[in-house]
Write a structure and sequence with these properties.
Blueprint lengths: L3 E5 L16 E6 L4 E5 L2 E2 L11 H12 L4 H4 L5 E11 L5 E6 L7 H11 L6 E3 L2 E16 L2
Parallel strand pairs: 4-8
Antiparallel strand pairs: 1-8, 2-3, 5-6, 5-8, 7-8
């Protein structure tokens, strides 16, 4: 019988691969004083990765206040460590989209991590050449189910 559950955040980082998903740029308006350019490329290689506003400590606090760490136990997960990995896009404006679970533990864990990502405030977007760009991000959230 599982009497205790604890959640450990062992790893939180953006993971980037040396590739570019697409290469399209859209000019939405141009006049003599300013060019508003939106790069619709989703980058995997950037100069500065997207981050949760306030950094890791703010992310941990957000998790503490929003993550339902009991989800695996409530759904019958056995004792163990589960490293849930979610891939998603942080858009140039900080919004999140395109959530893809890369793990398949089930027991509601992937859904719980996606739920809190969808509820999160806008992130600080990635930068490439000093410009905010959309980028692919991978997040690993660890659930530890133990006997208490």
């Amino acid at each position: 019988m599982i009497k205790h559950i604890s959640t450990l955040i062992l790893f939180f980082a953006s993971s980037f691969v040396a590739a570019q998903v697409s290469d399209s740029t859209k000019i939405i308006s141009a006049d003599s004083s300013e060019i508003n350019r939106i790069d619709t490329t989703i980058y995997e290689t950037v100069d500065f990765p997207a981050v949760f506003p306030g950094g890791k400590s703010a992310w941990y606090k957000y998790l503490e206040n929003n993550l339902n760490a009991a989800v695996p136990v409530e759904n019958g997960a056995k004792t163990g460590t589960y490293n849930v990995i979610i891939k998603f896009v942080v858009r140039y404006d900080g919004t999140l989209s395109g959530f893809i679970p890369l793990t398949k533990y089930g027991r509601g864990m992937e859904e719980e991590v996606i739920r809190i990502l969808k509820l999160s405030p806008k992130w600080n977007p990635a930068k490439r050449n000093g410009i905010n760009v959309s980028s692919v991000t991978k997040l690993t959230q660890t659930f530890v189910v133990s006997k208490g």
